[in-house]
Amino acid sequence: MPDVHLTIDGRDVLSREGSTILDACRGLRIDTPTLCQLDTLTPVNVCRVCVVELDGSRVLVPACSRKVEEGMKIQTDSPRVRHSRRLVLEMLASSVDMSLTSPQVHGWMGRYGAEPSRFGKVATVAQPVKIDNELYVRDYSRCILCYKCVEACGVDAQNTFAIGVAGRGFDAHISTEFDVGLPDSACVYCGNCIGVCPTGALMFKSEYDMRSAGKWDESRQTVTETVCPYCGVGCMLELHVQDNSIVKVTSPLDHSVTSGHLCVKGRFGFEFVQRRGPKS
Amino acid sequence: MDGLLGAPEPVHHHVAHGGRITRTQRHLLLPVLHAIQDRVGWVSRGALEYACRRLSIPPAEAYGVVSFYARFALEPRGEVTVHVCDDIVCQLVDAIDAPEGARRVPCLGLCDRAPATLTERFGAVYEAVQSAHPPFRQPGSKLLRRIGVVDPESIESYRDHGGFAALKRAREMGPAAIIRAVTEAGLLGRGGAAFPTGRKWQSVADQPVRPHYLVCNADESEPGTFKDRVLLENDPFALVEGMAIAAFATGCEKAYVYVRDEYPLARERVARAIKEAREHGYLDFDVEVRRGAGAYICGEETALFNSIEGKRGEPRNKPPFPVQVGLFGKPTLPNNVETLVNVIDIVNGEFGDTRLFCVSGHVLHPGVYEVAMGTPLRSLIELAGGLPPGRTMQAVLLGGAAGSFLTPEQIDVPLSFEGVREIGATLGSGAVMVFDDTAEMKQVLLRIARFFRDESCGQCVPCRVGTRRQEEILERMFSSHGDGRADVMLLSDIAQAMRDASICGLGQTAANAIASGLTQLKVLNA
To answer: Domain map of chain A by residue range?
Structure first.
């Protein structure tokens, strides 16, 4: 594929045709904040935290989805870019509980000087946690509406289509049809939505219970890599273990077999491992 | 629903369809939902699930669609529903006695007959009735010359007034010459964005990918705008002729007219005009009328495509632009009603570069007026009879909710794209709302903020949260006694992020009117 010449923050870059501005920024080791972007999912460019300034464009453009073009001149740290990134982070944090997002997100909040409290007393998406099954919980007061779970449930991974975005505006939310509980929906409990959720809105029931009891402690956890024993596909599992018990299961995003996705057995079928001795 | 899709297969034959069949039926979701609601007044869970089975759509996705559009009800309601407009213009006049259970809705596009209502009766025969108004003529006009003169339900009447002569001439000229004429006339799109029409046509004509689609955007939902309704209701054959010329020039195999749900008469008349024109051999391509479902955002072209495709009306990121990747992923020509009607005069060599304006609010004769580009705003207001006797002007809102406020000192501005740009305003969709000294401008600003909060699709953060915060902060400012300087700064920060980082024009303009209102009007405590 031919290369495309562009300039980012005054530096000349050669980029593959068809790649995105974000790819080019990463090539230059420019830390670009992203929330709704994931390498394994189709870009939806909805969070707008990755916006950059493009010469000749009236508005800022999303780095995650905008393809590189010959001769582009891009600024990733101009006052306009910093302003929009700050406001996006502030707006999100003023309406959503972002306490369980990655330390990286908190780093961006610091870098752009986000002060969510300056909006004063305003509406949030706070609501009770949805616990309707034994495998995972949905805490939509942590949901930033990044669409990742919908994509993972749909054509990007699972093709189950158990959830979608319902309502609109500030009231838009992730929902099953008529907001029925997961047991009544099309959900197959593959847990791929949990795998892509960046905010802890979707969480293993085991993790949720331990957090509620104050027992969750990542510093005491180890990760053991193994191959799923259930079938011949060969999915790699990462078993997160605390106090000699498996507390959650993930798969690496860059694994050639799974791309981070698993099925219900690999994701949740670990209980047999911790059965110690016959049932009395 | 079975009327639309045919009788269902016997149960023992039913298989879940996938692949091609799914893809070819997906776009029928909105027509199916309308069929359900017209019959029983709401969309029940059972009805939605049946629709999903017939169309092979996952129920969660269909629920997302149904809950997106304001006009679909998810709760049972009576046989009759009355919608009462409480938008900018209608809230200026004395409220009518709304019957119990009436729904308050945003602009119904009937600002010339404020306060506006729309009454729906559900059942075997669905009826929708708009508040009535006598027909309206404007002597000496060009685009409006047939309004109130021709019979909008008769193709003979249209032909008697010169109809379809332009189409005949266009076919003699050939596509290239038509596009050249449109480009040379300098026609700019009349939907609000003012993009050069000739350039858009050329881009679509040049696309090698097939088919090409023509989409007439008749989802006129900008508060204070009703010009397209007047054209559709009173001169529907002109739109059909304009579309036939556009499709011929750009090689479109299929066309859609997307009419907002709030315009039942316009929809009926344009559907009838298409049918008659086809019977008389004027249309050699397929034209389908599609019905919106209560979403301002669907006036944005890419949201409109998604809506036709049976999805939530969420705008797409551009590029790619519609002329390359539009409806169903194919090259698409989206044009506004007034733009297409203008093409007739261009082909006939009679283009006059006039423009339709919708004058409403505190004027004696609200309505659609046609004036030459560059006419001073003051003359337009005088044409509409001026203010009621004894009143003085407080402000004019130019361009609708996405436009900006002008002060009485600014009303000599010439109504041209360049003229208004000089004072930081836009013509937008041609809405001119006049406020006299009795208007409560704080209420007007709050209504605009509420409008955008209600109509944001919710896809991108700057607009979803920004429109909400904008409304909250404005409410706080107007109800407190402080000077609100910190809040003004906050609003300006939000406005810049919405303008810079929103996906589409809704978010990018959602702060315009409020920002201009705060600087131009005396709404803040000194």
So the answer is: 1-124, 136-274
**In angstroms, what separates the C-alpha of B67 from chain A's closest C-alpha?**
5
The pLDDT confidence band at residue A2, using thresholds 50, 70 and 90, is confident
- The domains of chain B are located at 2-66, 80-130, 155-347, 354-436, 441-520
- Contact at CB, B503 and A48, closer than 8 angstroms: yes
CATH numeric code, A1-124: 3.10.20.740
CATH of domain B155-347: 3.40.50.11540
Alpha helices by DSSP H, listed for A96-228, are 103-111, 148-153, 192-196, 205-212
| Correct CATH for B354-436 of 3.10.20.600, 3.40.50.2000, 1.20.1740.10, 3.40.50.720 | 3.10.20.600
Q: List residues bridging with B118 in a β-sheet.
A: B83, B130
Q: Does A95 touch chain B (CB under 8 A)?
A: yes
Query: What pLDDT score does A65 carry?
Result: 96
Which ipTM did the prediction report?
0.96
Find out whether B220 and B226 touch, Cβ atoms under 8 Å. Answer: yes
Q: Contact B461/A122, CB-based, under 8 Å?
A: no
Q: Is-contact B126 B120, C-beta < 8 A?
A: yes
Q: Is A3 helix (H, G, I), strand (E, B) or coil?
A: strand
A136-274 folds as: N-terminal domain of TfIIb (2.20.25)
| pTM confidence score | 0.96
Q: Mutate which of A91, A122, A159 to test chain B, going by most B C-beta atoms within 10 A?
A: A91
CA distance B332 to B383: 38
Instruction: Spell out which residues of chain B touch residue A117, defining contact as CB-CB under 8 Å.
Output: none
**Testing the interface with B: which of A87, A95, A159 to mutate, by most B Cβ within 10 A?**
A87
Distance CA(B205)–CA(B53), nearest Å, equals: 39
Statement: B441-520 belongs to CATH 1.20.1440.230: yes
* Distances B289 to A198, B40, B215, B446 between C-alpha atoms, Å: 42, 22, 10, 35
